[in-house]
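Structure ticket #2291
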Amino acid sequence: MTDTTIVSDAPIDDARPPQHNGAWVAALVTLVGGIVIVSIIMQAALSGLTSGGGARSATYTASVDGVTAIAAEIAASDLVLTFDDVDEATLEVQARGWRADVEWLLEVDNGVLRVSDDRDLWWSWPFGSSSTSAQLVLPQELEGDLTADIGVSAADVIIEGDFGDTRIRVSAGSLQMTGDVSSLDLDVSAGDASATITGEPPSSTTVDVSAGSAVIELPDGTYAVTGEASAGSRTIDVRTDPSSPNTLHVSVSAGDATVTYGD
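Resolution: structure written out below.
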C-alpha cells in the first residue's frame, strides 16, 4: 500500500474583500469638520457686519432759499421729518449691516426740495441683514408754507409739522403724520397710514384705500362727506353737513379706512 501526500506551494485564496473602513470614516470626519469650521467663520463674519461692523453714517445739507415745496420718495428706510431751529435742510443718515448704504439724495430743483434714499436695489445679498434710518430737519421758518408730496413704498416714515397742500402715497410700509395741513390727499395701496391733523379743518381731505389701512383724525368741525366702500370697511365718525366748505371724500376698494376726530 502506498501513501501519497500532495503538497502545493500556491497561496491560499482569501475571497473576503479588503477592509478600508478606517480610511473612508477618517475622510468623512475631515470633510464634516471642514464644513463646520467654514460655517462658524461665515457666521462670525456676518454677525460682525449686522451688529455694527458694517455701520456707516453721512450728513447732507441743502440751502432752502426759494424753496416752496418738498418731494420725498422713500423706498426702503426709516425716515423722521421735523422742523427745528436750523439754517438749512439737514439730513442725517445711519446704516448698519451687510451692504450698509448711506447714499441719499438731498437737492433743490426749481424751488422743490427733493429727498430720496437713492440706492440701487435691483439685487439683494442672501446672507445677513441691513437697516437704514435717517432724520431730516427743516428750518422752522418753512413750517406751514411748504406743499408736500411724500411717497412711501417699503419704509417707515414719521412726519411732524405743518404743511400746505399735502399729498401722501403709501404702497408698502407705514406712515405716521401729525400736523396742520391746508388739504390732504392720501392714497394707500398697501401698508398702513395714520394722520392726526391739527389746527383748522382742511379745506379738502381725500382718502383712497385699495389695500391696507388708513386712520385719519381730523379737527373738530363739520364735513361734506362723499365716497363709498366697494369692499373692505369705511368708518366715518365726524359730523356731516352737505353744505360744509370742508370736503371729505373716503373711498375703499379693499382694506379699511377710519375717519374720526382727534383728541
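Closing remark: The chain has a mean pLDDT of 84.
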